[in-house]
């Protein structure tokens, strides 16, 4: 790649990062769901490498966001809900390890299809589970709640590993519905669950040859992640400016359109699980 092309790519990475972070910040999420389709469709990475890059950037964005969010909700209050955190982590780290291992064995065409389906699923969650007043699901006893929490955590871990996201879009409504916790506090608790979950899947991906993309593309990762951090801050400042009745359908539509584009990649002949930039 020429130096001029490299500058264009990095400039586009920063601008894209800002846009992605802003979209996520508008609803209190990191925006990794919107980043993955760009890594595939605009920057030309294969599915596995795109997911690994997305996971690396998600880790950076979440790590940067954690201290800022701790200023709003102190760590002492977050960890007073240690039983909720531990219950979900018991499932999510297992799911993340399994999901990442499963992803490394997928053929690219199947991986594209799975990504497209998961993006549509996120769109459905945004439409029906976010921005609504939810009541806690009733359980017959503590054991049944723990079992459901671990199973839900496992599913979220698999989902997060396959998309390279933090999983907040699923963790937040899960915490609200299962444990009856306020949605703002649920957003902080989701970080405590997502960080070890992301580290687990990232560690599992490091065993695959495609993980070399992290070493090869580290300037790209840093620049796009920096853009996402800036965008998250901007989106956070605008939180609530756009009503959810308008914002959530719009974001869901973006995800569905992205899913269609990713699905089309699965129909192309000769698609490779390795990066097109290799």
Q: What does it look like?
A:
It is a single chain. This protein has helices at residues 3-25, 32-41, 47-72, 75-78, 82-105, 108-128, 142-163, 168-179, 183-205, 212-216, 218-237, 244-267. The chain has 278 residues and is mostly helical. The N and C termini lie close together (10 Å).
Give keywords.
single chain, 278 residues, mainly alpha, 12 helices
Q: Kindly state the mean pLDDT as a whole number?
A: 84
- Please report the total strand number as a whole number: 0
Morphology call = globular
Ranges where pLDDT stays below 50 over 5 or more residues in a row are: 272-278
Structural class comes to: mainly alpha
Helix content: over 70%
Pattern of helices and strands:
HHHHHHHHHHHH
Oligomeric state of shown chains: single chain
| Span of the ends, CA to CA | 10 Å
Rounded Rg: 18 Å
Q: How would a textbook summarize the main sheet?
A: none
Strand residues, percent: under 5%
Fold topology:
Layout: H1 3-25, H2 32-41, H3 47-72, H4 75-78, H5 82-105, H6 108-128, H7 142-163, H8 168-179, H9 183-205, H10 212-216, H11 218-237, H12 244-267
Helix pairs in contact: 1-2, 1-11, 2-3, 2-12, 3-9, 3-11, 5-7, 5-9, 6-12, 7-8, 8-9
Short description:
The chain has 278 residues and is mainly α. The protein has helices at residues 3-25, 32-41, 47-72, 75-78, 82-105, 108-128, 142-163, 168-179, 183-205, 212-216, 218-237, 244-267.
């Amino acid at each position: 790649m020429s130096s001029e092309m490299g500058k264009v790519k990095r400039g586009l990475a920063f601008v894209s990062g800002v846009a992605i972070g802003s979209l996520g910040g508008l609803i209190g999420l990191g925006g990794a769901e919107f980043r993955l389709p760009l890594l595939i469709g605009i920057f030309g990475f294969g599915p596995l490498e795109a997911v690994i890059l997305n996971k690396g950037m998600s880790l950076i964005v979440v790590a940067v966001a954690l201290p800022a969010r701790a200023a709003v909700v102190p760590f002492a209050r977050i960890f007073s809900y240690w039983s909720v955190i531990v219950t979900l982590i018991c499932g999510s780290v297992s799911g993340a390890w399994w999901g990442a291992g499963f992803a490394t064995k997928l053929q690219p065409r199947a991986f594209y299809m799975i990504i497209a389906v998961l993006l549509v699923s996120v769109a459905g969650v945004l439409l029906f589970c976010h921005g609504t007043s939810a009541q806690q699901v009733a359980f017959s006893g503590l054991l049944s709640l723990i079992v459901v929490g671990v199973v839900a955590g496992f599913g979220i871990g698999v989902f997060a590993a396959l998309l390279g996201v933090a999983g907040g879009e699923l963790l937040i409504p899960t915490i609200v519905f299962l444990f009856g916790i306020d949605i703002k506090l649920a957003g902080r608790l989701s970080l405590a669950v997502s960080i070890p979950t992301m580290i687990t899947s990232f560690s599992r991906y490091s065993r695959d040859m495609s993980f070399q993309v992290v070493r090869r593309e580290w300037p790209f990762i840093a620049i796009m992640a920096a853009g996402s951090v800036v965008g998250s801050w901007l989106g956070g400042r605008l939180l609530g400016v756009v009503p959810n009745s308008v914002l959530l359908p719009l974001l869901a539509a973006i995800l569905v359109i992205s899913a269609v584009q990713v699905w089309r990649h699965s129909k192309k002949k000769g698609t490779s699980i390795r990066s097109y930039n290799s």
